[in-house]
Amino acid sequence: MQIQVKDEIHTVVFMLNNSVAAESLYNQLPFKIRVENYGNNEKIFYPPTKLNTTDTPSAEGPAGTLAYFEPWGNVVMYYGSFGRYRGLYDLGTAISGGEHIRKLTGEISVTKISE
Fold first, then answer.
1. What pLDDT, on a 0 to 100 scale, did the predictor assign at position 73?
2. Using CA atoms, how far apart are residues 69 and 73, in angstroms rounded to an integer?
3. What local confidence, expressed as pLDDT, does residue 110 receive?
4. CA 12 to CA 101: how far, in whole Å?
5. What is the pLDDT of residue 83?
6. In sequence order, which ranges of 11-65 are alpha helices (DSSP H)?
7. Do 2 and 97 form a contact (C-beta atoms < 8 A)?
8. pTM, two decimal places
9. Any idea where the Cyclophilin-like domain is (predicted)?
């Protein structure tokens, strides 16, 4: 499963893992939503419905990681490295355009990429 996150200028492609949470996000696509800055290493957005995190691995790692923060119900796109945090689940990794995560602004479209 691959998804594309795009604003008016920048595009990032993520390869989702085979987790229940990643599939839960994938099944909600497509949608348009506002991206927000959070902290000094991530961009976030809130999917229309909360994701099912059953049997989904915890997230910890490098820039380019796509994760879900269950307590707040937001998807996190990391442009800097990060550590393990309770309630943070791994959804996948940027395979193209990861360097643009930091630059995403305003309304983004999140869509499936045909396989």
1. 98
2. 6
3. 98
4. 7
5. 86
6. 20-26
7. no
8. 0.95
9. 10-111
What is the side-by-side strand order in the sheet with 11-16?
31-34, 107-112, 2-6, 11-16, 88-96, 65-69, 74-78, 42-45, 36-38
Coil/strand/helix, residue 27: coil
CATH number at residue 18: 2.40.100.20
Residues of the domain holding 100: 2-112
The SS3 call for residue 21 is helix
- Tally of CA atoms within 13 A in the half-sphere of 47 that contains its CB: 26
Q: What is the CA radius of gyration of the chain?
A: 12
Tally of CB atoms within 10 A around 56: 22
Q: Helix, strand, coil % (nearest 5) of the chain?
A: 10, 45, 45
Domain count along the chain: 1
For residue 114, is pLDDT > 80? no
